[in-house]
Amino acid sequence: MNGIVWPDFTKIKNFSGNFVFEYKPLHFHKWHDIGGYKIKLIPVNHTIPTNGFIIGSGNKYILYSGDTKETDEIWIEAKKLGNKLKAVFVETAYPNNLISLAEKSGHLVPSTLLLQLKKLGNIKPKIYIYHIKPEYEKNIKREIKFIKDYKITLTEETKTYLIK
Question: Which residue among 72, 84, 122, 126 sits deepest, i.e. has the most Cβ atoms within 10 Å of its Cβ?
Fold first, then answer.
């Protein structure tokens, strides 16, 4: 949003005279109320500083992992929600045979995904996999089938997902 290639919406006002965007800092480990939703920012493990989010309203929450390899903090926070946690959106970029590359680049493979999901204990939300490297999609899809006890969906870029 440099005002040249992409408009700087922080300087553009809507018909009401308010700026279209307003940046506000979010603090780690604190619930923020934004647009009717509660959002908690949790740091995760990646090659650069990266965050995951827990987002929800009422009795429905989701976890969005962000780019991450094995991590603990976000899963500990999510487990506290119990059955209010309805869905987990978690990256799984590579197949199991590329676990070394995944670890070095800060990503998950199906086997490390399973280790992360087990951190939720008996909570079994729907699992949505994203950030799949296209050339490995078939292998990841095959390996995900070996993960039992979880309903796992590989997300599609143009599809909308309804969480109930």
Answer: 126
The total of other beta-carbon atoms located within 10 Å of residue 42's CB is 23
Measured distance CA(160)–CA(126) in Å, rounded: 15
Residues in the chain: 164
Spatial distance between the Cα atoms of 154 and 10, rounded to a whole number of angstroms? 35
Confidence band of 22 (pLDDT split at 50, 70, 90):
confident
Which H or E element spans position 99? helix 99-105
What pTM was computed for the model? 0.89
Tokens 């650069």, residue located: 48
- How far is Cα 162 from Cα 153, in angstroms, rounded to an integer? 12
Q: In what order do the strands lie in the sheet with 50-57?
A: 31-34, 37-44, 50-57, 60-64, 85-91, 126-130, 152-154
Structure confidence by residue, pLDDT tens digits, 65-110: 999 999 999 999 999 999 999 999 999 999 999 999 999 999 999 9
CA-CA distance, 123 to 132, in Å (whole number)? 24
152-154 and 126-130 strand pairing:
parallel
Instruction: Determine the straight-line distance between the first and last CA of the chain, rounded to whole angstroms.
Output: 34
